[in-house]
């Protein structure tokens, strides 16, 4: 059985006991989370989010890319969020390669070199500060002042703020 | 108290009972989920994911953008995932505006017009098929054949496959 088929069986059980079918589209806590895609991060569990509470945006690294600015623009302008919480984490895969290494590997394997940045970084705190700066510099976000960055420790489950 | 401060209190309680501190970075089920950022979607709960099971990538709409291709490239090439599951959903905010409307509003308010697509769409199934096609056409993904698209019904909690 494929992994997806197994997850669909889980979903059938979830739907049987589902009871939150009438929540509004706008997030109740008016907050958007931007976190890494890492498999060890259960965003709802580690933040105690209930269904309907917050937008959750995730990509490789949890870095603020153009696509994250797009998502945050929609989150703030159309769906009323006011705060942004960035979550990077210890032992992140993005710390373990360089853009040049990965592009070389892809070039050799696929014959095409990605034109886009792969988003690797060397320092979690620096990457968080760069992501915060990208949000603050965006002309598209009406609420770019309430953004805070955190490192999630995958060994302890605890968030630490980076200032 | 800010929403973020409240979530940090939740995290302190989470960390007190945390017990999954030694999971590997590579996802155990070798699957990457691409889902909408919608606040009503608890990706781990609705798929029965355990910590360490799967990459979770999310943005406005759950559409496959360049940034999603970037994340999937890292997921497959560096962290061993093999299947991709796309999740759009009913009552999605992306169905309720057009790119032109939102860009006009931003232009008027901020004095700058976004050069990037906002990602709105008119039909969930068409958008899913377009996202699947983008994955299949990418030269960067070594495992672009095992991608499946689903609509999550926010009223029932149930996934429906789009073929």
Main attributes of the structure:
homodimer, 163 residues, Beta-carbonic Anhydrase, Chain A, five-stranded mixed beta sheet, 36% helix, 19% strand, globular
Write up this protein.
The structure is a homodimer of 163-residue chains. By secondary structure, the first copy, chain A, is an alpha/beta fold. Chain A has a single domain (23-162), classed as 3-Layer(aba) Sandwich (Beta-carbonic Anhydrase, Chain A), CATH 3.40.1050. Chain A is 36% helix and 19% strand. Chain A is built from 5 helices and 5 strands, in the order αβαβαβααββ. The first copy, chain A, has helices spanning 3-16, 43-47, 66-79, 99-110, 124-137; strands spanning 31-36, 54-59, 83-89, 147-153, 158-162. Chain A has a 5-stranded mixed sheet, with helices on one face. The longest helix of chain A has 14 residues, at 3-16. The first copy, chain A, is globular and about 50 Å long. The interface between A and B is large, with 94 and 94 residues.
């Amino acid at each position: 059985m494929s992994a997806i088929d197994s997850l669909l069986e889980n979903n059938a059980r979830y739907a049987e006991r589902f009871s939150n079918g009438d929540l509004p589209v706008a997030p109740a806590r008016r907050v958007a989370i931007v976190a890494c895609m890492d498999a060890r991060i259960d965003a709802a569990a580690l933040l105690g989010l209930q269904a309907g509470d917050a937008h959750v945006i995730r990509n490789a690294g949890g870095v603020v890319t153009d696509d994250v600015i797009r998502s945050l623009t929609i989150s703030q302008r159309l769906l009323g969020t006011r705060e942004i919480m960035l979550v990077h984490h210890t032992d992140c895969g993005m710390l373990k390669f360089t853009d040049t290494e990965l592009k070389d590997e892809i070039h050799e394997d696929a014959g095409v070199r990605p034109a886009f940045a792969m988003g690797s970084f060397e320092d979690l705190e620096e990457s968080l500060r760069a992501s915060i700066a990208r949000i603050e510099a965006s002309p598209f976000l009406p609420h770019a002042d309430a953004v805070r960055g955190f490192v999630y420790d995958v060994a302890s489950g605890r968030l630490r703020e980076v200032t």
